[in-house]
Amino acid sequence: MKKILLLPVLLFAMASCTAQDKTSFGKEALESKMTALDGKQIAFKDILAKYKGKTVVIDVWASWCPDCIKGMPKVHDLQKQFPDAVYLFLSYDRVDEKWKAGIEKYGANGENYHVGTSMKEGAFAADIKLDWIPRYMVVDKTGKIALFKAIEADDAKLIETLKNLK
Question: What is the CATH number of the domain that holds 42?
């Protein structure tokens, strides 16, 4: 009986470690098309390629998300503390006009792309195991994921990761 109970615990522990230790995006996520402010489609891999050699902070957000809006001042503080990083805002707004208005209204200063209309659908959301926004990730200068998940822009792990990548 003890062996049967232990198996689910071990499987859960292994899955949790795998999610936290993920250091690269999956093929489907890299191929995911996102929309630039000019309306052109671009694959996520091509977005990342533009910033190879730089530290990238990814902020997955939406203008309708109260926690995203409350977190924006913390993002602004992070931008002041780490001005050399690229800030990549990936939105799950439902309507392009609201996404664009939200960028202006909440000061999402950086590179902005529209991922899709539902954070529960699509290869990108599935690959990063998106279950909450805002969601912060850090990609190092070589394109590897240095921090897979933070939900606060002032998270100690996020700040420590950025300090270590300077």
Answer: 3.40.30.10
User: For residue 81, which of 73, 89, 92 has the smallest C-alpha distance?
Assistant: 73
pLDDT in tens, 122-148: 999 999 999 999 999 999 999 999 999
- CB neighbours of residue 156 within 10 Å: 9
Range of the domain at 40: 24-165
The DSSP code for 138 is E
Q: State which H helix or E strand residue 149 sits in.
A: strand 145-150
pTM (two decimals): 0.86
Annotate 44-105 with DSSP letters as a single string. HHHHHHHTTTS-EEEEEE-TT-HHHHHHHHHHHHHHHH-TTSEEEEEE--SSHHHHHHHHHH
